[in-house]
């Protein structure tokens, strides 16, 4: 289908498709350890070990159970913990607390894992499209939106500081969630995406070759974008700052009189 939002490629997806599906042998995760929340798709692709980290033990147990049902060769480890010192905060993703969840957590994870990461390792950060829309669109969600913008810029810096690894931000599409309803957002205004779409898109980013995904390093990618068309864009993006966070309109044409 045609893109619902501005897109660098002409084809838009709301559901998974063969190129990103876990059964695609080119995306095999055999022998890899995956550290991510809700990594069932990586189990489908044969990951050796999945470490699940989050705040709610019951939710982690449920995910672990799903993984075990999905793959008999994948082992799991559960690590319930808070990513900040604000252990008493019940809603880390609300207002200023969003900065701890969305920015500080990335920094902590990067500092812990990147020094010993395999040369073929990937770090994928979940972003949010709303953070890149004009402010009136997300009015009332300043803490959350600005934290996502900061996270995207942090990921961009990490990608340049660790060029041998693949690091990028991913917008996970529009999947109806409890958080959206509690925020009063009308989740019925645009077509919904399946849960499998973002999971499988991130699987592709993890398993695809450098020649296919490399140009996305440090950028923000939407799970709705067709991966075949993204591959065709390598070397043709045109702008080094494409799909990154920056100052709209820069570089400017105007110059001072003495320049």
From TrEMBL:
Gene3D superfamilies xref list: NAD(P)-binding Rossmann-like Domain (3.40.50.720)
UniProt keyword DNA repair present: no
Gene Ontology MF terms: oxidoreductase activity, acting on NAD(P)H, oxygen as acceptor
SUPFAM superfamilies, sorted: NAD(P)-binding Rossmann-fold domains
InterPro entries (UniProt xref): NAD(P)-bd_dom_sf
Keywords: Oxidoreductase
Similarity comment: family membership: Belongs to the short-chain dehydrogenases/reductases (SDR) family.
Protein's name in the database: NAD(P)-binding protein
Organism per entry: Bimuria novae-zelandiae CBS 107.79
């Amino acid at each position: 289908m045609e893109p619902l939002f501005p897109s660098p490629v002409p084809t838009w997806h709301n559901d998974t498709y063969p190129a990103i599906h876990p059964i695609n042998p080119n995306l095999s995760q055999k022998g890899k350890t995956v550290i991510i929340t809700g990594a069932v798709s990586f189990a489908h692709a044969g990951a050796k070990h999945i470490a699940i980290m989050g705040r709610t033990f019951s939710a982690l147990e449920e995910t672990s159970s799903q993984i075990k049902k999905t793959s008999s060769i994948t082992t799991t480890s559960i690590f319930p913990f808070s990513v900040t010192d604000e252990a008493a905060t019940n809603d880390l993703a609300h207002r200023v607390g969003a900065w701890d969840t969305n920015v500080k957590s990335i920094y902590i994870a990067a500092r812990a894992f990147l020094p010993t990461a395999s040369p073929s390792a990937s770090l994928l950060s979940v972003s949010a499209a709303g953070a890149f829309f004009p402010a009136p669109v997300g009015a009332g969600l300043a803490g959350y939106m600005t934290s996502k913008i900061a996270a995207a810029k942090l990921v961009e810096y990490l990608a340049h500081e660790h060029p041998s690894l693949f690091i990028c931000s991913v917008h996970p599409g529009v999947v109806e969630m409890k958080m959206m309803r509690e925020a009063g957002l009308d989740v019925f205004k645009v077509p919904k995406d399946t849960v499998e779409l973002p999971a499988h898109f991130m699987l592709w980013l993890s398993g695809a070759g450098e020649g296919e995904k490399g140009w996305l390093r440090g950028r923000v990618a939407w799970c709705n974008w067709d991966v075949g068309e993204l591959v065709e864009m390598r070397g043709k993006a045109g702008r080094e700052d494409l799909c990154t966070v920056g100052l709209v309109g820069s570089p400017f044409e105007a110059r001072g009189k003495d320049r």
